[in-house]
């Protein structure tokens, strides 16, 4: 192995040995026959990971890339705690329960003393649990047809997984013109007596827009009056669950709407915790069928659990509680408010550059999508994305789904740690690249030749 020429800060300066002595080949796909020193192993893995993108320049991800050093320390202290060992770590279990209570109150559950919910590994696991509860409630009504779930085509892939793994038909409302998410009318049109629920997304991954949860609920109320069919709503608030309560206090989207039966959120997105934690909360105990619950021993007592995993790290749950305590309502409002300021200002400046047109402005989630004007024919959004990568910025370009496959866009996610100053640097790079690309005659990349991007 060649020595790394990169300068390391003092604390992570390479162990001198490994740079001069490491073997030519390090086995990568089989277990090495013998041992190496911890320093050597550390340095080899550390050096390889330098090839990963810089997480702070990653405008593609919604997931937290910066936490306070005190949170880092707390997490390190909890790396050895298993969330399922409620008996051994009763205080970690207590902290999880407090977080569920906090979220129930934040989302206006009718009786937060009866808070029903749990932590998960992320919104994907939370979606499985929410979907399973909907399916079981539907089965309980004695229906025998094939169950279906109604949602917009912009749903995150976790809902496609849910439908596939648990054999539920997906009824997807396509996009149409400049409607990039679910509408109330289209949702109701797909409902029937085998609909286990409608999923409404608070913060679409495609463009950061909120789906009209209250309108969807009202339309389903009217549908019930007409047909007698009662269709519950699950809100996938993976991002918005930690944005709307602080910044859009007049928006009614949560348990204030009686039809909303469950809500999921990603603690590791705008909950501001490193990857590995999500939450699901039901409006009350009745919304979660009891036969889905398993009981584990907890200090000689039985404690209910509902989860796909058994063992799971406890550190992220502790870090979530740290954030709640540290930031409080005002702190979350400040952090998310700053992100939205950065997003709306950057969106405005990008619109002013000339060749771009905004699809959203960053004024719902601090996330916005933009496209090239139709007159721009010499380069594509995929060229722009690739150009930004040269400086380490990760700004994904992608095409939209059904009925708007013609639309290709770029998306920027602003989250904690992305400052106005970084936004200015990104804008300067974008301006420079656009000047160069304007001289190009035909696009170099399209959706098929661009590097993959998954939501
Ligand atoms: C990110 C996201 C998910 C998946 O969440 P994970 O926490 O990454 O598992 C689901 N739905 C929406 C709307 C999302 O933004």
UniProtKB/TrEMBL annotation:
Top-rank EC class of the record's enzyme: lyase
Task: Name the InterPro entries for this protein.
Answer: Glutamate_decarboxylase (IPR010107), PyrdxlP-dep_de-COase (IPR002129), PyrdxlP-dep_Trfase (IPR015424), PyrdxlP-dep_Trfase_major (IPR015421)
Listed Pfam families = Pyridoxal_deC (PF00282)
Q: What is its EC number?
A: 4.1.1.15
Molecular function, one GO term: pyridoxal phosphate binding
Catalyses:
L-glutamate + H(+) = 4-aminobutanoate + CO2
Query: Does the entry feature the keyword Disulfide bond, yes or no?
Result: no
Give GO cellular component annotations, separated by semicolons: cytosol
List-wise, which residues carry N6-(pyridoxal phosphate)lysine? 269
Q: For this UniProt record, give its keywords in alphabetical order, as a comma-separated list.
A: Decarboxylase, Lyase, Pyridoxal phosphate
Write out the GO biological process terms: L-glutamate catabolic process
Where is the signal peptide, in residue numbers? none
Q: Which cofactor does it need?
A: pyridoxal 5'-phosphate
Protein family according to the UniProt entry: Belongs to the group II decarboxylase family.
The protein's name is Glutamate decarboxylase
Name its species. Answer: Actinoplanes missouriensis (strain ATCC 14538 / DSM 43046 / CBS 188.64 / JCM 3121 / NBRC 102363 / NCIMB 12654 / NRRL B-3342 / UNCC 431)
Q: What is the lineage of its organism?
A: Bacteria, Bacillati, Actinomycetota, Actinomycetes, Micromonosporales
């Amino acid at each position: 192995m060649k020595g790394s020429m990169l300068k390391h800060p003092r604390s992570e300066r390479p162990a001198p040995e490994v740079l001069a002595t490491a073997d030519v080949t390090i086995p990568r796909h089989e277990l090495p026959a013998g041992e190496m020193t911890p320093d050597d192993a550390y340095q080899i893995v550390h050096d390889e990971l330098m090839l990963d993108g810089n997480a702070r320049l990653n405008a593609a991800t919604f997931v937290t890339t910066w936490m306070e050093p005190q949170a880092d320390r707390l997490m390190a202290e909890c790396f050895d705690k298993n969330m399922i060992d409620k008996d051994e770590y009763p205080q970690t279990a207590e902290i999880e329960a407090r977080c569920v209570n906090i979220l129930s109150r934040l989302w206006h559950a009718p009786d937060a003393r009866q808070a029903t919910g749990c932590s998960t590994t992320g919104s994907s696991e939370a979606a499985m649990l929410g979907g399973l509860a909907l399916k079981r409630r539907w089965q309980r009504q004695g229906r025998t047809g094939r169950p279906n779930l109604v949602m917009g085509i912009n749903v995150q892939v976790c809902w496609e997984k849910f439908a596939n793994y648990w054999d539920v038909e997906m009824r997807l409302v396509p996009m149409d013109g400049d409607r990039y998410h679910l509408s109330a009318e289209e949702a109701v049109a797909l409902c029937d007596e085998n609909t286990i629920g409608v999923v409404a997304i608070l913060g679409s991954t495609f463009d950061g827009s909120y789906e009209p949860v209250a309108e969807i609920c009202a339309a389903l109320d009217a549908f019930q009056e007409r047909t007698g069919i009662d269709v519950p709503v699950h809100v996938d608030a993976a991002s918005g669950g930690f944005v709307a309560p602080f910044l859009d206090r007049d928006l009614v989207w949560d348990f204030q709407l009686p039809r909303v039966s469950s809500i999921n959120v990603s603690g590791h997105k705008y909950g501001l915790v490193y990857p590995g934690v999500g939450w699901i909360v039901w409006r009350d105990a009745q919304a979660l069928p009891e036969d889905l619950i398993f009981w584990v021993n907890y200090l000689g007592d039985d404690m209910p659990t509902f989860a796909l995993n058994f063992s799971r790290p406890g550190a992220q749950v502790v870090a979530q509680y740290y954030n709640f305590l540290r930031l409080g309502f005002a702190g979350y409002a400040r952090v998310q408010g700053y992100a939205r300021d950065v997003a709306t200002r950057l969106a405005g400046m990008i619109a002013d550059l000339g060749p771009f047109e905004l699809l959203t402005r960053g004024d719902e989630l601090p996330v916005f999508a933009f496209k090239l004007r139709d007159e721009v024919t010499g380069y594509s959004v995929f060229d722009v994305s690739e150009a930004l990568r040269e400086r380490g910025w990760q700004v994904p370009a992608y095409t939209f789904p059904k009925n708007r496959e013609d639309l290709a866009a770029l998306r920027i996610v602003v989250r904690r740690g992305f400052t106005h100053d970084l936004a200015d640097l990104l804008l300067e790079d974008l301006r420079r690249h656009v000047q160069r690309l304007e001289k190009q005659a035909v696009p170099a990349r399209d959706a098929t030749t661009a590097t993959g991007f998954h939501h």
